[in-house]
Design a protein that fits this description.
The protein is α/β, with parallel strands linked by helices. The chain contains 15 helices and 15 strands. Bound molecules: NADP nicotinamide-adenine-dinucleotide phosphate. Belongs to the zinc-containing alcohol dehydrogenase family. Quinone oxidoreductase subfamily.
């Protein structure tokens, strides 16, 4: 009975989609693609103007996180916009930092370029945090072709945009990708931001790629956190040899994800263990500080080896010294380290940064569906407990990711059920009328 119902609704949805596709083609020829796309979308903008979410109105500790139902819905404003109903979000160390004001100077400039002229130009508040989303497209701009309303998608939300700890988030098509089908929204939300960061660091700064990694030795410091647990799996999928540093109690986790060799950084002889190993082609440093000097000495000299750190002073400098001085200071510090390391050991010293990249997430989605990358979700919180989720992250010692379920997937199922029942009834009504018309 259930499967007959499912078949019926699938058939109906197919014929509905075919009809929409046919009419899209016809209207596109007549230059009407925008209005057709708009007709099939179910934009909540026409139904509601406000949405629930967690905002901050000032920087500070956890107390500044406020739940409100009065956030203006972020509607589609440009032809490349994609509006997403958020099912799950996840937290990153950046959310804790941004809550306290980290990066405010540079991010404000990106949001409001005129703010370079003074503080009167635009405010970032109320600010929505949350850098990952897994959800469903509800509306698209006229030039969007890769996704359509109803598609399940995932994305990393750039830090200069309003975040995903709200009912809806709007991004550009380039930032959005189809979510892997084999995992839930909660699992999917654990991946995009760390994936875009790791890919940007390993590919753009580290010079690695799927086809050139099989003979490479890579060291990942801080392998038990969000970026580390993703990077281990990506590099193993690419065939690299992966060594990881982490606490002793995370060894089982990182070995389970494929790490070939593991060094407990809390052990007294951790440095000696690393120094006795064969040298590395690439280091991805998720820890920084004292680890930097140690890691630089572990690279193969004069062979194009690369040290890539995700722990950079750029935003801290612009926050503390102002835009111009901060950027100059960061630039000169990067330059002097790069020159020093290339001259002394022939190794490249680089900074890695998150970069928005939906097409890269398409590749990751395929790796997840192929079972080569597993989501590593350490903790999940309901939407009512966002401050508790921040508290968890703030305690440190992450083992993968902390996820917030913004829309409970049971709610999604009940919404689908309502939709399905409605379409079944509509189909039944249609079929009942058609024979009558034929006679
Ligand atoms: N530049 C960018 O665009 C960018 C983007 C994303 C992330 N990041 C930065 O990259 C870093 C990693 O991010 P993440 O999301 O993976 O952080 P995370 O989830 O908080 O993970 C950090 C991990 O490092 C471990 N750890 C701490 N000290 C360590 C040490 N000395 N040696 C080895 N492991 C150590 C922690 O576990 P234990 O403490 O239990 O050992 C934890 O598992 C953060 O500093 C983050 O801010 C930068």
């Amino acid at each position: 009975m259930g499967s007959v119902r499912a078949m019926a609704s699938t058939r109906l949805l197919c014929s509905f989609n075919n009809r929409v596709a046919d009419s899209t083609k016809t209207l596109a020829r007549a230059g009407w693609s925008l209005s057709c796309r708009r007709n099939v979308s179910s934009s909540p903008s026409r139904l509601q103007s406000c949405m629930p979410g967690w905002v901050i109105d000032q920087y500070g500790t956890n107390g500044v996180l406020t739940y409100t139902e009065d956030i203006p819905v972020p509607t589609v404003n440009s032809p490349s916009d994609v509006m997403i109903k958020v099912y799950a979000a996840s937290l990153n160390p950046l959310d804790i930092a941004m809550r306290g004001g980290y990066g405010a100077t540079l991010l404000k400039l990106k949001r409001h370029p005129m703010s370079v002229l003074g503080s009167d130009y635009g405010s970032e508040f109320p600010l929505i945090l949350g850098r990952d989303v897994s959800g469903v497209v509800v509306d698209c701009g006229s030039e969007v072709t890769h996704v359509a309303p109803g598609d399940e998608v995932w994305a990393a939300v750039p830090p200069w945009k309003q975040g995903s700890l709200a009912e809806f988030v709007t991004l550009t098509e380039y930032e959005v990708s189809h979510k892997p089908k084999s995992v839930s929204h909660a699992e999917a939300a654990s991946i995009p931001y760390v994936a875009n960061t790791a890919l940007s660091a390993l590919v753009n700064a580290g010079g690695l790629c799927r086809d050139s990694s099989s003979n490479k030795r890579v060291l990942i410091t801080g392998g038990s956190g969000g970026v580390g647990t993703f990077s281990i799996q990506l590099l193993k999928a690419w065939g690299a040899h992966v060594t990881v540093t982490c606490s002793q109690n995370a060894e089982g986790l990182v070995r389970g994800l494929g790490a070939d060799e593991v060094v407990d950084y809390t052990a007294e002889d951790a440095s000696e263990q690393l120094e006795m190993m064969e040298k590395f082609d690439v280091v991805l440093d998720n820890v920084g500080g004292e680890t930097e000097q140690l890691a630089l000495g572990l690279l193969k000299p004069w062979s194009g080896a690369k040290y890539v750190t995700l722990v950079t002073p750029l935003l801290l400098n612009t926050d503390s010294m102002g835009l111009l001085n901060g950027m100059c200071q960061a630039g000169s510090s990067l330059q002097s380290k790069a020159i020093q390391n290339i001259i002394s050991g022939g190794v490249f010293y680089r900074w890695g940064f998150y970069a928005p990249d939906g097409p890269a997430l398409d590749d990751v989605s395929r790796l997840v569906d192929a079972g080569k990358i597993l989501p590593v979700v350490e903790a999940q919180f309901p939407f009512t407990q966002v401050p508790q989720a921040f508290q968890k992250l703030e305690q440190g010692h992450a083992r993968g990711k902390t996820v917030v379920r913004v829309t409970e997937e049971d709610d999604q199922r009940s919404e689908e059920f309502v939709q399905e029942s409605y379409t079944d009834t509509a189909e039944f009504e249609q079929e009942r009328r058609e024979p009558a018309k034929q006679h």
